[in-house]
Amino acid sequence: MAEVKLHPDWLARIGGEFDQPYMAALKDFLAGERAKGKTIYPRPADWFAALDATPPQEVRVVILGQDPYHGPGQAHGLCFSVQPGVRTPPSLVNIYKELHSDLGIPPARHGFLKSWAEQGVLLLNNCLTVEAGQAASHQKKGWERFTDAAVAAVAADAAPKVFILWGSHAQKKAANVAGLGTASPHLVLRAPHPSPLSAHNGFFGSRPFSQANAFLEARGRGAIDWRLPEMPAAE
């Protein structure tokens, strides 16, 4: 696996996954792809960036993506987010439009969402790597099982959280997670994906940001400041 150190609080909850055969197979697959000269996004140091940026006990909101962006310089380990200086992708443009409609926050001039992650918004992709230019190329290689374990660990903790599930893919991923039933302490918000192909089918007008904050504030967990800072420096 990548030469990174996963946050110790995550290791305490899901570190056993690294000892499972599927993770050894995933490691071999990734090493083989790189040996063939294939470009993989994001860089290895960022494969677990979402977990490192948001320790499990600090998670207040979970947003699930599918795969990292597969264009040069885009992916850095947080779903929907891109590096400073990179053009804001269409789905994130629509997220900003809904944020403006919902809370009156003007769209940011960049797509770097790390300030959300630092406030407890877990921006987790289903698969944590992708081949350059090949969407969904690393599906069913083992990442899904690993990220399922991460989502299950978050859901199993009784501290109230908001799961924002955009699109059928995210909704199916969370469907069987313990703690998301009718007696759950968490709030589950479902809406179509913000992609230009589906955003007009119910994503716009779903008001996830205000609903999340109202839920969190009512339970003493504090609101997320969804405003993004001015253009940060590239990492």
UniProtKB/TrEMBL annotation:
According to the UniProt record, what class of enzyme is this?
A: hydrolase
Query: Major place of localization?
Result: cytoplasm
Q: Which Pfam families match?
A: UDG (PF03167)
Q: Name one GO molecular function term.
A: uracil DNA N-glycosylase activity
Q: What is its EC number?
A: 3.2.2.27
The question of whether DNA repair is a record keyword is answered with: yes
Domain Uracil-DNA glycosylase-like span(s) in chain numbering: 52-216
**UniProt subcellular location:** Cytoplasm
Q: Which reaction does it catalyse?
A: Hydrolyzes single-stranded DNA or mismatched double-stranded DNA and polynucleotides, releasing free uracil
Residues annotated as catalytic? D67
Positions the record marks as coiled coil are none
- Asked whether the UniProt record includes NADP among its keywords, one would answer no
Q: Which HAMAP family match?
A: UDG
What is stated as this protein's family in its record?
Answer: Belongs to the uracil-DNA glycosylase (UDG) superfamily. UNG family.
**What this chain does, per the record?**
Excises uracil residues from the DNA which can arise as a result of misincorporation of dUMP residues by DNA polymerase or due to deamination of cytosine.
Q: What is this protein called?
A: Uracil-DNA glycosylase
Recorded source organism is Sphingopyxis jiangsuensis
Name the lineage: Bacteria, Pseudomonadati, Pseudomonadota, Alphaproteobacteria, Sphingomonadales
